[in-house]
Amino acid sequence: MDIKHLHYFLEVAIRKSFTKAAHHLYVTQPTISKMVRDIEDELGMVLLDRTGKEIELTDAGKIVFEQAQKIVQSFGHLSDELSDLMHAKKGKLTVGLSPMIGIQFFPGILSRFHKEFPGIDLHIAEYGAKKVADCVSEGLLEVGVTVGHFDEEQFHSFVFFEDDLCLVVHTSSPFATFDEVRLSDLCDEHFILFPEEFSLRSMVLNSCEKAGFQPNIVFESSQWELMVKMVSEGFGIAFLPKSILDRVDQNRESIVSIPIADSELNWRLSMIWKKNHYLSYAARTWISETRKAFSSI
């Protein structure tokens, strides 16, 4: 067993799929399957339950997963520090971004960064903001963008954008003529929300709970364009940032956005990285350059 075996095992465990892990690592599925089987054979234990639709960790697998994370992370720190020492202005970095945030804010920044720092191999991991924070916390990502509140004792950060969330309804909705809506008025509505790994979902659910009800969720999607389309078809209501809605062209005539009166729901975007944690040259450069880019907007 070597570090590559552990790295492959972690990818399968995190993505719950040999196929997805192989695609992410740019290797064949038989290759990654053999790597994981080698670990199981060496330890004499089954680490992955392969019987369901998604692969799950066995009890032994959970123990190996926890320890493998620490080993791979430590090895990565060693490689990063040596790389910084011997290969100045070179490195590798994966940034955690949700698709919605990436589309809205980062195309220009990514392009400029690539031109100014061609020695840095930059990749994007498209995760929901909640998963990005979890991955940074666990050392699986050095840096990423999250939404809303987070553990400030655990992360360094800088805020680069804030926006209100709006209620989005079909023009036939009784709320379509309202100047503003209270969350408690929406208890009987059909909710269209982001999946569990998105912070916006948790924010909406928590606010609804404070308003005294559990929302009836009828549809989930990670794509805001699809959510708007579903609202335009009268399928339910959604919550989206005002700046995102301003980008909507199609279906605009069949939807209405309304301010939420009694809620602290807002789209607060922060770049985060873990405290007391070694940052590679690539990560330090990314933080510095994105901070400068957003301060000039």
TrEMBL record:
Q: Give the HTH lysR-type domain ranges.
A: 1-58
What InterPro entries does the annotation carry? HTH-type_LysR_regulators (IPR050950), LysR_HTH_N (IPR000847), LysR_subst-bd (IPR005119), WH-like_DNA-bd_sf (IPR036388), WH_DNA-bd_sf (IPR036390)
What the entry lists under Gene3D superfamilies is as follows:
3.40.190.290, Winged helix-like DNA-binding domain superfamily/Winged helix DNA-binding domain
Pfam families given for it?
A: HTH_1 (PF00126), LysR_substrate (PF03466)
Q: Known SUPFAM superfamilies for this protein?
A: Periplasmic binding protein-like II, Winged helix' DNA-binding domain
Instruction: Write the record's keywords in alphabetical order, separated by commas.
Output: DNA-binding, Transcription, Transcription regulation
Q: Give the family this protein belongs to, as stated in its UniProt record.
A: Belongs to the LysR transcriptional regulatory family.
Q: What is this protein called?
A: LysR family transcriptional regulator
Q: Which organism is it from?
A: Sporolactobacillus mangiferae
Lineage of the organism: Bacteria, Bacillati, Bacillota, Bacilli, Bacillales
